[in-house]
Amino acid sequence: MTASALGRDFRLLWCAAVSSRFGDSLRTPALALLAAAVTRDPRVIAAVTVAAQLPPLLFGLLGGVYADRWDRRRTMALVDGIRAGVVAALALAVAVDRAGILTLLMAAFLLAALGTLFDSASFALLPALVPPTALPRANGRLQAGTAVAGGFLGAPAAGVLFAAAPALPFALDAVTFAVAAVLVLALAPAPVVRPEAGAGAPRASVWGEIVEGVRWLRGNRTLWRVTLLAAASNLAISGILAVLVLYALDVLRVPPAGYGLFAAAAILGGVAGAFGAGRLAARLGTVPALCAVLAAETVALTGFALARHPVPGGFALAVFAAGTVVWNSLCASYGQRHVPAGLLGRVGAAQRMVGLLTAPVGATLAGLIAAAYGTVPVAGAAAGTFALVTVVAWRTLRQGFA
Question: Which DSSP state fits 106?
């Protein structure tokens, strides 16, 4: 099923997501390059990255509340409009040579904070645009489109545009946000009717609504277990990503000039997985497919840890990336099908929060292990973590096999 077969509104949402992702892939490396042009202090440069990583942890659950309170279509359009203005102001500051480190920190933090609201609203809006049975395909198409826009188009173009004019990637990013806002506004209105406590009952507090979303997630055994499994998986994934370039260069003997091609294997695998997610779910069922994907990822990571040549290492990485994208697509689809419409923003935000908490731990542990023993034990530990996660998944998710 193609994006067009999923309907007009999905096509608009897909185009908006791809446009926005293309802009993101221009801005992110451009921010790093700009920070490096302003200062060579690695602590300050790293702070720009941290400024973009903190908001999801600080405001993710809050974004879920307002994604459930407000009209999701208008919320997404408003957020993208504001982000367009922020990046346009940053482009202007760069063009007139007024973009210091404080400006970069503020822009990175604000854009990421706004993104938490947009992500929650987008996750909650999709089930209103496509039938429940089409959600795995729809999520797969979204991941495929954003992967191509970011990995194959935006990332390679970012350095070229920055070299031509440092303000150019930011200006183009502002345009992509504006285009995305217009596309989202063109969606047919699909208001979510939230259940009320009773006639005349006051609205719960923000904290009360956060607790309601977390409590619902905790009370759904399958979704909660899938969320914990995803968090455990992210521990290994963040560890591998933290040392991937060193592992590729030192262990797999990838030539520095060929690293971009090696990394492209992961993008190709992810795109293939995105297109296969819907078919796998239709054939096996969502929960059995999740368990099968974990087993495949374990085999792929084991092969990656044992590989000593770029070709088998790249192939294993591609298979692993395909499995990761399938897992993400099916997890999102399962939640979108089973969570009540009025809770989708909060429950989705809570799932993302749990998953994000393990990422910095995995990256930190990987750095410490690699510094003491090299990168090979990191890959082995990641494969072992996935093996354990797979065993736990097959033992605890059996009720979802029906």
Answer: H
Global pTM reads 0.88
pLDDT, one tens digit per residue, over 15-25 is: 999 999 999 99
Number of domains forming the structure of the chain: 2
Q: What is the length of the chain?
A: 402
**What pLDDT, on a 0 to 100 scale, did the predictor assign at position 11?**
95
DSSP 30-55: HHHHHHHHH---HHHHHHHHHHHHHH
Q: Encode burial over 129-161: b for 16+ CB neighbours within 10 A, e otherwise.
A: bbeeebbbbbbbbbbbbbbbbbbeebbebbeeb
- Do 17 and 160 lie in one domain? The reply is yes
Judgement on whether residues 256 and 382 belong to the same structural domain of the protein: yes
- Helices vs strands, H then E, count in the chain: 14, 0
Low-confidence spans in the chain with pLDDT less than 50: 1, 193, 195-200, 402
One domain for residues 171 and 234:
no
Task: Give the range of the structural domain holding residue 87, as residue numbers without chain letter.
Answer: 4-132+150-184
Using CA atoms, how far residue 399 sits from 25, 225, 229, 387, 393, in Å, is 40, 12, 16, 21, 11
Pair (255, 390) in one structural domain: yes
Torsion angles phi and psi, residue 36, rounded to 5: -65, -30
Asked if residue 143 is part of any domain, the answer here is no
What pLDDT is attached to residue 201?
Answer: 52
Q: Cβ distance 124 to 344 under 8 Å?
A: yes
User: Tokens 């990046």 appear where?
Assistant: 87
φ/ψ of 73, rounded to 5, equals: -65, -50
DSSP for residue 129: T
Cβ atoms 118, 67 nearer than 8 A: no
Answer whether residue 138 is part of any domain.
no
| Alpha helix stretches (DSSP H) within 307-375 | 310-338, 344-373
* Same-domain status, 157 and 301: no
For the stretch 44-86, pLDDT in tens is 777 887 888 889 989 999 999 999 999 999 999 999 999 999 9
| Cα angle value 79/35/22 (rounded, 5°) | 40
